[in-house]
């Protein structure tokens, strides 16, 4: 991902799953001031990962662009 901005996502909505268009991203939990430590997650060869802080389930959706998500409100 060198040379590109890291996609950032949050889960203020409290949804169980967020679909995203990248496998490497930053999760902040909720929006500040209620955010958890900002951590970088990498799905590697998998198509899903669970944030160890907020337990949000992120899944890769190849039809989305890197900084897009379903629901769209999850993009920071």
Layout of strands and helices, then pairs:
Blueprint: E1 7-9, E2 17-20, E3 24-29, E4 35-42, E5 48-50, E6 57-60, E7 69-70
Parallel strand pairs: 1-3, 2-6
Antiparallel strand pairs: 2-7, 3-4, 5-6
Plain-language structure description:
The chain has no helices and seven strands. The chain is mostly beta strands. It has a single domain (7-74), classed as q5lls5 like domains (HSP40/DNAj peptide-binding domain, Sandwich), CATH 2.60.260. The strands form two sheets. It has a four-stranded mixed sheet, with no helix packed on it. A hairpin with a 5-residue loop joins β3 (24-29) and β4 (35-42). It is globular, with a radius of gyration of 11 Å.
- Termini, distance in Å? 18 Å
What best-fitting shape do the alpha-carbon axes yield? globular
Would you tell me the structural class of the helices and strands?
A: mainly beta
* β-sheet strand percentage: 35-45%
- Reading the helices and strands in chain order gives EEEEEEE
Looking at CATH, which topology would you report? HSP40/DNAj peptide-binding domain
CATH architecture label name:
Sandwich
CATH superfamily: q5lls5 like domains
The share of residues in helices is under 10%
Count up the domains: 1
Overall mean confidence score, pLDDT: 94
Q: Using only CA atoms, what is the Rg?
A: 11 Å
Largest sheet: number of strands, sense, barrel closure: 4 strands, mixed
Strand element count: 7
Which stretches are low in confidence, meaning pLDDT under 50 for 5 or more residues running? none
Top-tier CATH class = Mainly Beta
Strand order of the largest sheet: 5-6-2-7
Number of DSSP helices? 0
């Amino acid at each position: 991902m060198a040379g590109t901005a890291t996609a950032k996502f949050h889960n203020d909505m409290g949804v169980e799953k967020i679909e995203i268009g990248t496998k490497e991203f930053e999760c902040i939990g909720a929006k500040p001031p209620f955010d958890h430590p900002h951590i970088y997650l990498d799905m590697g060869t998998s198509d899903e990962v669970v944030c160890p802080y907020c337990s949000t389930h992120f899944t890769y959706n190849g039809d989305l662009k890197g900084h897009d998500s379903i629901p769209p409100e999850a993009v920071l």
